[in-house]
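Hi support team,

I submitted a single chain yesterday and got back a structure, but I'm not sure I'm reading the token output correctly. Could someone confirm the output below corresponds to the sequence I sent? I've pasted both exactly as they appear in my results page.

Thanks,
R.
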Amino acid sequence: MAEAVRAAGIPKPPEGIFLYSSRTPDLAFDTTEQKVAWGAGHVTIAPDVQLGSGGTTRIDFGDGSSIAVSVLDPRPALTEAIGTPYDNCGQLAIPASKCKLTITGAFLRTAEVDTSNGPATVPAWSFTAKGLSRPIVVVAVSTAALRPLVEPVPLSTLAKLEPGLLGAERLTRIDGSALSFILVHGMCEPDLRAHVVEFEDLVVIGGSHGPVQGGCADVGVSSPAVVTLAKPLGDRAVISAATGVRLTPRN
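Hi R., thanks for writing in. Yes, this is the structure output for that exact sequence:
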């Protein structure tokens, strides 16, 4: 494992601040037509509606720190929130006249989100829409300031785990020499154990299980696990035994 990771190059830690939450906190619609219209990008601004503009403000983090950011104008904020549109109106036989959302107003507020720096209060636009009983709240910070989470690609040269071994799904906490993470396993796999192998430049985490008895439904579940290193982690990379990717703390 360690040799394969080194041969490919030990992954660098991700740079920047990552948004773990949705760009549209608590997004909900009253009808299927509204939901499909949003996903299709059929969102327009009602005539003569003044949406306002951005400016500058800050993101406040739970630890008391903050960073200055530019506030996206309403239209770009909507575009980033919708993302890549998927027009499903025709497939669901929704008439064009109903497969649309019309924005009737917007005001700037804040929203609570989860980031790689912990919980944060960010600027957000609150949009009202025709026929919608609740506002559409959209994070008003660009993806350059709050980067979208991108799942790392598993190492292609890595051999498949041997039977009885498990991979770490995600790392949840680093506390000195203690690593907390999530093990993915089958519901019928007994005697779960967490394991760690340490090297000078990286540590590999995973787990194992005992022999599986028959007559049990094969359902995947996740369980918390903790391992203790021989010395504090420092700047060493934490690598998943199953995928060879670098793990960073994420709740």
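A quick pointer for reading it: The chain has a mean pLDDT of 90. Let us know if anything else looks off.

Best,
Support desk
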